[in-house]
Design brief:
single chain; mainly alpha; 2 helices
């Protein structure tokens, strides 16, 4: 296109690709952290079940208390995993949002140069 700074357009495109790559890295790191935490939670849950089996001789009231604690921990774990996932997604979104805003300004500058 005559009068358009194609070098600036290509450089902007390169930065877009870099931002997309970074956002993917951030999302992948977040997913890996969630996966690691899920493994830790599953291991802890297995240990809790083993402890419950060992403590099967507990009275009804004690069993109810153990079950309540296990349920509360499961809810806390689910909440933690949801928060971790949401943060990872938000971090990746912020990378792309920032780049989009910058890209728009770059395009305005390129086309303003063309007209001026």
């Amino acid at each position: 296109m005559p009068g358009v700074d194609t070098k600036a357009l290509l450089e902007s495109h390169d930065r877009n690709i870099e931002a997309l790559t970074r956002a993917t890295e951030v999302a992948t790191e977040g997913a890996a952290a969630v996966y690691r935490r899920q493994q830790e939670i599953m291991q802890a849950a297995g240990e809790q079940v083993s402890a419950m089996v060992r403590d099967i001789k507990l009275g009804t009231e004690q069993q109810a208390e153990v079950a309540k604690k296990v349920f509360e921990q499961a809810l806390a774990n689910a909440r933690e995993l949801a928060e971790m996932s949401a943060k990872a997604n938000q971090d990746a979104y912020e990378v792309m949002k920032k780049r989009l805003q910058t890209s728009i300004e770059e395009m305005k500058a390129v086309f303003a140069k063309q007209q001026g």
